[in-house]
Structure formats: C-alpha cells, structure tokens
Amino acid sequence: MFNLGRGQLGRRINVVGTTGSGKTTTARQLAERLEIPHVEMDALNWGPNWTPADRDTLRERVAQALVGEAWVVDGNYSSVRDIVWGRADTIVWLDFSLLVTMTQLTRRTVRRVATKEELWGGNRERWTSFCTRDSILWWGLTTHRRRRREYPMLLAQPEYAHLAVVHLRSPREARKWLAGIITRTA
Fold first, then answer.
1. pLDDT of residue 2
2. CATH assignment of 6-179, among 3.60.15.10, 3.40.50.300, 3.20.20.140, 3.40.50.970
3. What is the pLDDT of residues 122-153, one digit of tens each?
4. pLDDT tops 50 at residue 113
5. Rounded to whole angstroms, what are the CA distances from 126 to 110, 123, 130, 139?
6. Is residue 91 a contact partner of residue 161, using CB atoms and an 8 Å limit?
7. Partners of 71 in the β-ladder
8. Distance of CA 186 to the CA centre of its chain
9. Where are any strands of DSSP class E within 68-172?
10. pTM of this prediction?
11. Considering only CA atoms, which of 145, 144, 167, 143 is closest in space to residue 155?
C-alpha cells in the first residue's frame, strides 16, 4: 500500500474505514474539492425504522449510483464491494486508532441524539441505543480490529490490483492530505 501524491488521485474513489473514522465527512469534502458527486452508501441502505435494504436492492442502488465516470463513495458494505471496488480506481483508507474512532463516534452520536438529527429514511439515533448490542458504539468497538486486519488482505487480492491506495493513519494526516488536493478551478 502506498500514499498517492496530489496529481495522481483517481476520479472514482471509495473512502473506507471503521465506523467513526470520518468516512462520510472525508468523502464529502473530497467530492467538493474535486467537484464530483458524493455517494453515501448508508443513504442507499437504510429505510424507515432502520430497515436495511435487501441485498439485491442495495446492489442495484449502488450500481445505479456509480454509473458515472467520476464519484466519491463512502462505506464498507461487503455485499457491494465487488461493484464499488470493481469500478473504483482509488481507495482512501481511514485507518485510525480505536481511541480516535470511538471518540469521534461518541461525539457524533451524542450530537445526533441531542439535536434529533434526521438520518437516512427518517431515522434518528436515540439515547437508549447507547446501551444495547445494536448500538453504533458497540458496532464500532467490535468491528475496529476486524477492519484493520481485513483491508490489507483484501487489497492484496488480484482482482483489486488496479486500485491505488491512500492509507491515512490519523485525522491530522487526513486533513493534511485533503488540504493538498488541488481543486480543478483553483
């Protein structure tokens, strides 16, 4: 894996990382800088009452969303990885420590609960979800190590050899990298 310089960034980019790493924020900022569409996979997956799309529906939605020649998509859905990574030319991996991701995730969740922020499909996070095994915090805690182990193995597979990889290990490194992305109009 390697980090790309400013001029080598592709036009079909998947931002990946564990829950709480800042995938959506990074993808949105990157898409704005590159002046290309941002696709949020959570928005394609979640329906009312936190009902996930079935596998075929999600695959169809993702394939449709990635028809264009340029986009930045955020998310780690393994059921659509072949579609996303097959079309992508660049992976931006936000590989932050557990402390960093859990701190960011906790802050985000508290803010969303306190402001009653509406998410995909009209869903909202609730205070009661902090204490269950269904909570986003539990998900972040239990998937962090797995994500850090699986990405190097996945990226080493022959079917993904075409992907350029930007491996960012801290929010500071990510901010610095994003700041170095030159916009087309600049």
1. 42
2. 3.40.50.300
3. 888 887 767 777 788 888 888 999 999 999 99
4. yes
5. 9, 10, 8, 15
6. no
7. 12
8. 26
9. 71-74, 90-94, 164-168
10. 0.89
11. 167
